[in-house]
Design brief:
heterodimer, A: mainly beta, OB fold (Dihydrolipoamide Acetyltransferase, E2P), 2 domains, three-stranded antiparallel β-sheet, 8 strands, B: Peroxisomal Thiolase, Chain A, domain 1, 11 strands
Chain lengths: ~140, ~375
């Protein structure tokens, strides 16, 4: 099929990085057909298969649905361990994974805890506990 | 579809290889071919897996292996599916043989990471996750499985001893397996005292970084009038996929690709979980064995940990799981693992698993996962 008939993603992976690194935004997609909200780049919705993504900024707050305190990091995080790696259910739908530089012990976090996206100078999507927002990281 | 057998199998000792991947892969390939009573010239196609070949500055390793076997004219292709690479290769071999496109196919997987330090090896593993949406946010493989473990523990109360009993069992099995990386038993005290790598996973919840090579030979029944070893009849060869990223999975209590693969495989084999005598499952971390046994339909969700603790999955238990020692203790040379699981079935079927025999060897299932379940292979084998 000619290229102009291919579906286009509303934004690129590079836009995703720029979004949170430079503009403090979590960019995402909403499937206009089934309503799925996701951060993950794609040309079509993994739930319904339709190519009807539209841009949608993801809300900056949510609750932890799964997490670990990581003691042995990869090379991008060599000087940051221990830290929390989290899966966050964002308010209004959609989940995003990120990390929490200020959470260094399993007793500091629990599933269900409220967190807020907190853009910082370090790599990756960073969260802080909502109760700490504005005071740390 | 033609009846398809695994007719030969071989593995080296996992752990630290002095030789290169290419040398080890060629050596185990020849050994597997000979165990089938064949010679390299009988091979029609080679599927090779070496997911982290980049760490040895070597791609396109298949022609080098075939050349080293004296069959440079035989076609080869590399099959990469992260930790499930060589079981994906096995599936390709099955498709070729069952479909009549080849009579005998070599499947070989090999990996070498011991020349790297822990940081570099951890980083290589992590590129098999979704780089922008997971790795870049701090994920490592222990971290990803630990995250799944936290969701599981939140839903189902899980005592550390449940995970510990898996590590202890698999170390005990590996101690009786000459191919295993770790050949020592561990105690619950040792397990509980080991440091946290990614909470709630301790050091002894994690498989090691291993070097290793394993190979199997797949052939059509009609091409093997007098097999040299007891063949494994391939009753099911299934591959599935699922959403890779944890952030897009509605359910974190198991791996959807494992569930789908098991359903398809049992249907293809016309067998059910109760008719399987023993299993080799993907236990890269202890939580992965728990989830595998539930995803594959052997135990209801939330109950496998208790079964492990009660000894149901021991070598002499009702359902032996990972008699080889599994990834956890036999070791996990990524691309060799899938083939290596079949080596264990081959040795059990042929009375070669000395000192770690399981009570019944009529049927077996192997389960091999790519990364955190973006890919999955399930194979079911039976006697003739």
């Amino acid at each position: 099929m000619p290229a102009d008939e291919l579906p286009a993603a509303p934004h690129t992976v590079a836009d995703w990085f720029r979004g949170y690194e430079e503009n403090g935004r979590l960019r995402g997609f909403r499937c206009a057909h089934c309503g799925l909200v996701t951060a993950t780049w794609g040309l079509a919705c993994p739930r319904c298969g339709r190519s009807e993504y539209v841009d949608r900024d993801l809300p900056p707050t949510g609750a932890v649905v799964a997490y670990t305190i990581l003691s042995v990091p990869g090379d991008d995080f060599l000087n940051d361990a221990p830290y929390a790696y989290v899966v966050v259910e964002l308010d209004g739908g959609g989940r995003v994974t990120g990390w929490m530089p200020t959470v260094r012990d399993p007793t500091q976090l629990a599933i269900g805890d409220r967190v807020r996206f907190h853009p910082g100078y370090k790599p990756g999507v960073q969260f802080v506990k909502e109760s700490d927002a504005g005071t740390s990281a | 579809m033609r009846e398809t057998w695994v007719v030969g199998a071989a593995s080296n000792r996992f752990g630290k290889m002095k030789e290169s991947t290419r040398e080890a892969a060629t050596r185990v390939s020849l050994e597997a071919i000979r165990s089938a009573g064949l010679e390299p010239k009988d091979i029609d196609y080679t599927f090779v897996s070496n997911a982290f070949g980049i760490s040895e500055h070597q791609a396109h390793i298949g022609p080098l292996i075939n050349g080293g076997l004296g069959i440079p004219e035989v076609p080869s292709a590399t099959v990469e599916s992260a930790c499930s690479s060589s079981s994906a290769g096995l599936h390709e071999a099955f498709v070729h043989v069952a479909g009549g496109f080849a009579d005998a196919v070599l499947v070989v997987g090999a990996e070498k990471l011991s020349h790297l330090d822990t940081l570099a090896a951890t980083s290589y593993f992590a590129i098999a996750a979704d780089y922008p949406f997971e790795t870049k946010n701090g994920a490592t493989f222990p971290g990803l499985y630990a995250t799944l473990a936290s969701a599981y523990q939140h839903k189902f109360p899980t005592r550390p001893e449940m995970f510990g009993s898996i590590a202890i069992k698999n170390h005990a099995n590996a101690a009786r397996n000459p191919h295993a990386h770790f050949q020592k038993e561990i105690s619950m005290e040792t397990y509980l005292a080991s440091p946290m790598i990614a909470s709630p996973l301790r050091l002894y919840d994690c498989c090691p970084f291993s070097d290793g090579a394993a190979a199997v030979v797949v052939a059509a029944k009609e091409a093997m009038p007098a097999p040299a070893s007891e063949p494994l009849v391939v009753r099911a060869s299934v591959r599935t996929g699922s959403i890779t990223e944890m952030q897009d999975r509605p359910d974190l209590l198991g791996l959807p690709a494992s569930r789908a693969a098991a359903e398809k495989a049992f249907r293809q084999a016309r067998l059910g979980p109760k008719e399987i005598d023993f299993l080799e499952v993907h236990d890269c971390f202890t939580i992965a064995e728990v989830m595998a046994l539930e995803d594959l339909g052997f135990f209801p969700r939330g109950t496998a940990g208790a079964e492990e603790l009660e000894g149901t999955t021991a070598r002499d238990g009702k359902l032996p799981v990972n008699p080889s020692g599994g990834l956890k203790a036999k070791g996990h040379p990524v691309s060799a693992t899938g083939a290596s699981q079949v080596v264990e079935v081959f040795e059990q079927f042929n009375g070669l698993a000395k000192g770690r025999e399981v009570p019944r060897t009529g049927t077996a299932l192997t389960h091999n996962v790519g990364a955190t379940g973006g890919s999955c292979s399930v194979h079911i084998f039976a006697r003739r």
